[in-house]
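We treat protein structure as text, and this decision shapes the records that our systems exchange. We quote a single record here, exactly as it is kept in our systems:
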Amino acid sequence: RPGGAPCPQDGFTHMSDDASLLLGIGNHFYKAKGGEWLLLVCDPANLESEVRREPAAPVGDTGADFAGSEARLFPHLYGPITAAGGVRELAVERAADGTFLGIPGL
């Protein structure tokens, strides 16, 4: 939801501008975290906080060595996501074991 704060343990919000990587990222970092998930689609032109393009970073204690992370830069948002920055919410489909399966509408 808009208004979200950066990940407290990392100091920024992890983002991706390559939709083909999202399920792999979800399964690498968040498979064990249950519950319903939403993908927030952001308009980069409307993000009010600083976005830095940086190498993939760990999420908490999970390393950043996922498929597609090699030699690429990812957007990291250093500040909140305001209502103007978030343009769409999409439900994420998951299996009973937590596997991220799909994002209809993406």
Remarks:
- The first strand starts at residue 13 and ends at 14.
- The chain is about 10% helix and 30% strand.
- Residues 38 and 53 are 23 Å apart (CA to CA).
